[in-house]
Design goal:
Strand content: 25-35%
Number of helices: 4
Mean pLDDT: 78
Distance between the termini: 9 Å
Number of strands: 7
Largest sheet: 7 strands, antiparallel
Radius of gyration: 23 Å
Shape: elongated
Helix content: 40-55%
Structural class: alpha+beta
Low-confidence stretches: none
Length: 171
């Protein structure tokens, strides 16, 4: 709003240099907000696709293929190379299990997982199994997962940014 008021004052006073500078700053600000919204929405769409990933689950003594959205707390899920981790899980078994946690941290770190007490025995939703295999029990789903909480925060920020951008465009 400050830029808009300053731009109107520059127009009123007839100062072309200030008017151009403020107009450019206002344009850059609106463009940056629109880009932020576009990238944020793409991120949320990517996460929605993760909910449609198939998971191999042990239920009632039978091995089943289910979509991530069909998992429930306490399900035993099998992990293998190339698969997305379908929920936050506590590992029960890990055989040379290596996971990429890029979706959580933004850094492509290869994390070795193990079925022993400590942070290395958590496989988190949205990460990818790079090597090995494992089994885990589902301890969090959807918005209760670490990634789900991050997405909730991003969605709130996007809603605020979107309303601020809309206000700037409807002057």
């Amino acid at each position: 709003w400050i830029l808009v008021v300053a731009e109107l004052a520059a127009i009123y006073l007839g100062d072309a240099h200030i008017m151009l500078a403020l107009g450019a700053a206002l344009g850059v600000n609106i463009w940056a907000n629109a880009e932020f919204l576009r990238h944020g929405k793409r991120f949320v769409q990517h996460l929605e696709r993760l909910l449609q990933v198939p998971a191999t689950v042990m239920r009632g003594g039978r091995q089943l293929q289910l979509e991530t959205s069909e998992l429930v707390m306490g399900d035993i899920v099998y992990l293998s190379q190339g698969e997305a981790v379908p929920a936050d899980m506590r590992l029960l078994a890990a055989d040379h299990l290596v996971v990429d946690e890029f979706n959580l941290s933004g850094e492509s770190k290869h994390i070795v997982k193990a079925a022993k007490i400590g942070p290395q025995n958590l496989a988190l939703f949205g990460t990818t199994v790079l090597a090995g295999s494992g089994q885990g029990v589902v301890i969090a789903l959807g918005s209760s997962t670490v990634l789900g909480q991050q997405v909730g925060s991003v969605e709130k920020t996007l809603a605020y940014a979107e309303s601020a951008t809309e206000k700037q465009l409807h002057i």
